[in-house]
Amino acid sequence: xxxxxxxxxxxxxxxxxxxxxxxxxxxxxxxxxxxxxxxxxxxxxxxxxxxxxxxxxxxxxxxxxxxxxxxxxxxxxxxxxxxxxxxxxxxxxxxxxxxxxxxxxxxxxxxxxxxxxxxxxxxxxxxxxxxxxxxxxxxxxxxxxxxxxxxxxxxxxxxxxxxxxxxxxxxxxxxxxxxxxxxxxxxxxxxxxxxxxxxxxxxxxxxxxxxxxxxxxxxxxxxxxxxxxxxxxxxxxxxxxxxxxxxxxxxxxxxxxxxxxxxxxxxxxxxxxxxxxxxxxxxxxxxxxxxxxxxxxxxxxxxxxxxxxxxxxxxxxxxxxxxxxxxxxxxxxxxxxxxxxxxxxxxxxxxxxxxxxxxxxxxxxxxxxxxxxxxxxxxxxxxxxxxxxxxxxxxxxxxxxxxxxxxxxxxxxxxxxxxxxxxxxxxxxxxx
Length: 432
Ligand code: C2O
Ligand code: CU
Hints:
Bound molecules: CU-O-CU linkage, copper (II) ion
Number of helices: 5
Radius of gyration: 21 Å
Largest sheet: 7 strands, mixed
Shape: globular
Low-confidence stretches: 293-322
Helix content: under 10%
Mean pLDDT: 93
Strand content: 35-45%
Structural class: mainly beta
């Protein structure tokens, strides 16, 4: 059955914007909703005024109003767009679309396919349940739905041909659901994370993990038998595994063996952070159900890392409990997008942000306006030093990211579980 949604140009997902790297994008937006909105170009290194953050970088687009976005397609890759105003409901009702910026010479594949993943909480009548932002979702792992879609539909079989090479661009547009996709006997090769090229590799445990807002570009070489099927299974939530979609081989092969065309993507023009003389900053996330318990536990282990801050966090957490602001970044729960910067990064310098997840939950942490290298997890250097704009932190995990702060302005820094963001898990990082 069909479900009424909110969409861009009436479509779900919104229209795929696809341009060549280096061109200038000009996008006219008219708001036909009954409430204000903005559009944020997730992961794209836009000038601050084009970042689509209500009140902070622009006035919200009122009902009936318009806004004109204009920026350069600096980095090739897989990006997406969505509102930044009441996003837990606006995105949750379907406002999102893909933005693909092609390399000047794209790698050769047989098909370039985009899958926007989402999940919905539908009622028995297949309508969107209107309990957006309820207290339980806010305090726990966000609004996880009961119906998963690819490009706005419940997936049937996805047709493939033996010997075919597909570039699959996965975008997680869900408010809160984390995916861990298992392609069974296939060996997907990761070539880009959050739009940015990475050394081609098979993922750990053969699972493609995507927290909300994250993207993964895969090379899929179809090596199964003509006429057979391969299930793509989401194994993130233990005990709740399900088949997302089946890949169904056509009766005729495309070619006898998979092609050996190169799959490495050219680097984007990112500035390399100098780790040896980077300025260090500490960030602690806390709150949520069981947050206090985990905080006490972490307090003992964390040594010098901002004990005072954590105590502050605890204090304000108690004070705020009544106010539906239950998630904290360095002890502060955001109310709206206007706030004093939690960090000021000296412009054109290298910075390391050492983040601690002092909660019992996963959080995909997103920084606007920049891509950063993920350099360590729990003190161990990462293998690929991947560039990301959203990094998934496991409960109690510590992650260090590094970047050159080369894009001036006030930038949001927040959890992309949209219920956590709405309940305070957000701050402003100023580059000046
Ligand atoms: Cu995808 Cu601040 O957002
Ligand atoms: Cu979160």
